[in-house]
Amino acid sequence: MGDQIKRVAESLIKSQSAIALTGAGMSTESGIPDFRGPSGIWTRDPEAEKRAYWSYDLFQKSPKKYWEERLTGPSLLGDLFQAAPNPGHLALCELEAMGVLKWVITQNIDNLHQKAGNRKVLDYHGNAFKLRCSSCAARYEPEEFDLMTMLKDGQLPPVCRKCGGVIKSDIVHFHEPIPSDVSTMSLEIAMASDIMLICGTSAVVYPFANLPRIAKRLRRESNLPFTMIEINAESTPLTEQGISDDLVQGKTGEILPRLVAKIKKMKLPAKKSSY
To answer: Which of 24, 90, 123, 242 is the least buried, fewest Cβ under 10 Å from its Cβ?
Structure first.
C-alpha cells in the first residue's frame, strides 16, 4: 500500500483540478450508521424506511402534514448534531487548504465536511441542516423560521421569502429529483476535474454513481487527462468494470491522512487558489 499512497500523492501534486466524491463510508467512521447495514437505521427501524419512501409524496400532497410529521415524529438530527468529523474529513480539508483539492461532492447529508472546514462542498443529496424552497431552490438556515411556533399556531408550511414557494427540508427524498442547480454544477465540476478521488462510496446509488462514469468518458473523448482513484474498504462496480484506475483499499479515515502526510513530505508546487 505504501507504493500506492506514494503514486496517488505524486498524481495529486501534479494535478490542477482534483476533486473528491464521498459517500456513507466516510460518515460511518464518525459513528453515523448507514441505512441498510446490520446496524443500519432502517434495519433497526423498518418504519423509518417506509416514512422515507413516502416523504416526498406527502410533501407534494400536503406540505402542512409533511412538516407536522417532521416536527413531531422521530428525528435523526439528534444523532447528527453530536457527530464530529473524523480524520478522513480533516484530511480532505487539509488537501483543500493546500490547494490540492478543488471540490468535494458528497452524498452525505450530515454536514461533516463543512464542520471539518471544507469550504467548497456540494451536497448532492442535500443537507440535513438546511431548508430549501421547492420552487426557486433558495436555501435557508432552519433558525430563520420559528418552526415550532408555526406548528403550534397552525401556520405551516413555511414559505420562501424570495418567491413565496413552499419550503421543505433540503434533504433530497426518494422519488425527488436532484435540484437542478446541484445536478448542473456537480456535472460541470466532475467534467473539469483531472483527478477524481472516490472516497467511501459503494457507487451504486444513481444518479450520483453516473458522475464518475460521465466524467471519464467525456474527458477521454476530449483527450484530456483524467485519473479515477478509489479509496474504499471494498471494491465497487467502478473497480469491477474497470472504470476506476486504482483502488487503495482500506478505511478513508486511515488512508486519507497517510496521503496528506506523504504529500507534505514531497515538494508541493504553488497552486492557484480555488477560492
So the answer is: 242
**Bridge partner list, 133:** 167
Cell numbers for 73, please give them.
415524529
Question: How far is the C-alpha of 145 from the C-alpha of 67, rounded, in Å?
Answer: 12
Q: Identify the CATH homologous superfamily for domain 1-32+84-127+178-275.
A: TPP-binding domain (3.40.50.1220)
Distance separating alpha carbons of residues 87 and 5, to the nearest angstrom: 16
Q: Considering 89, 125, 173, 175, which one is annotated as catalytic?
A: 125
pLDDT at residue 2 in the model: 82
Q: Which amino acid is at 49?
A: E
Separation between Cα atoms, residue 11 and residue 17, nearest integer Å: 11
In the annotation, is 89 catalytic?
Answer: no
pTM of the model: 0.92
CA distance 242 to 226: 14
Rounded Cα distance between 17 and 224, Å, is 12
- pLDDT one-digit tens code per residue, 177-220: 999 999 999 999 999 999 999 999 999 999 999 999 999 999 99
Sign for the CA dihedral angle at 95, 100, 102, 103 comes to negative
Cα separation, 159 vs 145, whole angstroms: 9
Would you kindly state where each structural domain of the chain is located, as residue ranges? Answer: 1-32+84-127+178-275, 33-82+131-169
Give domain 33-82+131-169's CATH architecture: 2-Layer Sandwich (3.30)
